[in-house]
Amino acid sequence: MSAVPGALTSYRPALRPRVLLSDPLLDGAATVHLIKDAETGNSFKVGPKEHFLIARMDGERSLGEIGEEYAGAYGRRLGDAHWQRLLALLGAKGLLAGAPAGSAAPGAPAAVPAPVPEKRTLLRGSLPLVADADATTARLHRAFGFLLVPGAMVPLLALVLAMEAVVVARSGELLLAARGLLANPVLLTGTAILLWVSTALHELAHGVVARHYGGRVAEIGLRWRLPAVIMYCTVDDYLYLGARRHRVATALAGAVMNLVFLLPFCALWLFAPLDDATHDAFAALLLLGSVQAFAMLVPLPPLDGYRIAGQLAGATGLAASAGAYLRLALRRSPEAAAYPRRARIAYPAYAAVTVLVLAGTVAAVVAAAHHLLTA
Question: How many Å apart are CA 91 and CA 13, to the nearest integer?
Answer without folding.
Answer: 10
